[in-house]
Amino acid sequence: MATQARWIVDDEESAVHDEPHIADSRITVRAVHEWVENGDLDPETVAGRHNLDIAAVYHALAYYHEHPERMREVERDRERTIEANRGRAVTGPDDLE
């Protein structure tokens, strides 16, 4: 039987991610939660669109709910990054000049 640790990677020192994600993918736990619980996608659709095992999607959702403090930390870090880079976004051709 697979354990959650096999499905979800939460290595804060990771070169690829700075938040929990599905092992061997670039799909974050936060993204899965957003798509399924705050969006209009079911877990099977998420798995199909991203070539994931359906179990990985359910493990991501379980991780989100089993680690609420870690997920709040991820969201705070994300908001700080967005705010710090707000004026740097390229939104149109005029921004390229």
From TrEMBL:
Q: Which domain of life is it from?
A: Archaea
Q: Where is this region: Disordered?
A: 70-97
| Compositional bias (Basic and acidic residues) | 70-86
How is this protein named in the record? DUF433 domain-containing protein
Q: Which organism is it from?
A: Halosimplex litoreum
